[in-house]
Amino acid sequence: MKILMLLHEAFGGRGGIAKFNRDLLTAICAHPDVAAVTAIPRLAIDPPGVLPEKLTYPTVGLLGKASWFLRAGIAALERPPYDLILCGHINLLPAAFAVRRLNAAPVALIVHGIEAWHCTGRRVTDTLAGRIDFLISVSQVTRSRFFAWSGRETPSAILPNTVDTDSFTPGAADAALVRRWGLDGRRVILTLARLEARERYKGIDEIIDVLPSVVAEFPDAVYVIAGDGSDRPRLETKVRERGLGGHVVFTGYVPETEKRDLYRAADVFAMPGHGEGFGIVYLEAMACGIPVIASTMDGSREAVRDGMLGLTVNPSDAAALREALRTALLRPKGAVPPGLDYFDLRHFRARAHGIVDQLRRVCAPSLALDGRGS
Questions:
Q1: What pLDDT, on a 0 to 100 scale, did the predictor assign at position 374?
Q2: H helices of 166-242, where?
Q3: Are 193 and 46 within one domain?
Q4: Domain annotation covers residue 374
Q5: Does the bond joining 233 to the residue before it have cis omega, within 30 degrees of 0?
């Protein structure tokens, strides 16, 4: 089986979707019936690092949109042809179906969160969403909301995010990091997210709103907002206007190499939002033994398995959010919740391989036509 994947970023990319794509590509390449995978990225901020065997990862597309389309077109003309076109984001569907004109293979779409919860407003993209052959979703919430507007329920599978439980583990906080952000002797509430103006659904505003009452009970509490983006100046202004400067720390972008130490420095990880599709950060925090607060209003509740692994709260209910923060701050840290292994790499790979087996059935006609079926 030969697979072409069109995506925004994976190896060399940052954020949850980039990590999901890295994990998925690694798992797919390990499937014994996958002969080759070509993934064409649009973005890469960092060096890609070591790539999985069987993966071709051309970076010529990083020169711009035109060169990315050109590389995708060249790949579509390769022979033998690809058996599957894997589209890594709903906004790339027009490109995926353009490639399909040159390489007549089924199109499987991957959806993550709010970007697929309602129509995009782009007529071509919204029409093509109803013509895909297979859907891969990170959560039940996202799958249900996608099908509700796209007009057609195709064969589908759920592939939740994963966490490397060998890398993210409980342990002592890094003293240098604690000193850097002035966290020594403080009760730390942590949110780690992109601070983009178009993504004001993470629950950060809601936590800031209830923080004065939390500080009244826990004077040593500090809210660490980790991440960067276009919404950071607004949030900083809001913190100043509320007189919370001594109880809120903005760290800016946190590199992957420091994420584990940041989690370990926290007493609570809280991101009770309205638009999260799933959220790898919840898994990483729990793997580091940190009590987690997710939301009842989005896919993050699936990350904590509807309360089995962490707390869930409606972020619009200020009293409930305040009580959830209080409860979490009083819980001991350092223990990984039983059942987190449901999301470990072994289970992720098994799920991904099961999806490949499903996709082989979707691709069966094209595999049979060129004699590559097994």
A1: 42
A2: 175-180, 204-217, 232-241
A3: no
A4: no
A5: no
Bridge pairing between strands 292-295 and 268-270? parallel
Q: Which carries the bigger pLDDT value, residue 249 or residue 64?
A: 249
CATH code, 331? 3.40.50.2000
In a domain, 265, yes or no: yes
Q: How far apart are CA 170 and CA 33, in angstroms?
A: 37
Separation of CA 136 from chain center: 13
| Buried-state track 45-74, b at ≥16 Cβ within 10 A, e below 16 | eeebeebbebbebbeebbeeeeebbebbee
Structure tokens at 56: 């071709």
**Distance (Å, rounded) from C-alpha 22 to C-alpha 12?**
9
Give backbone dihedrals phi and psi of 29, rounded to 5 degrees, phi first: -65, -20
Read off φ and ψ for residue 373, nearest 5 degrees. Answer: -70, 150
Rounded to 5 degrees, what are φ and ψ at 21?
-65, -40
* Residue 170 located in a structural domain: no
Closest CA to 53 of 28, 76, 74: 28
pTM comes to: 0.92
Q: How far apart are CA 2 and CA 83, in angstroms?
A: 5
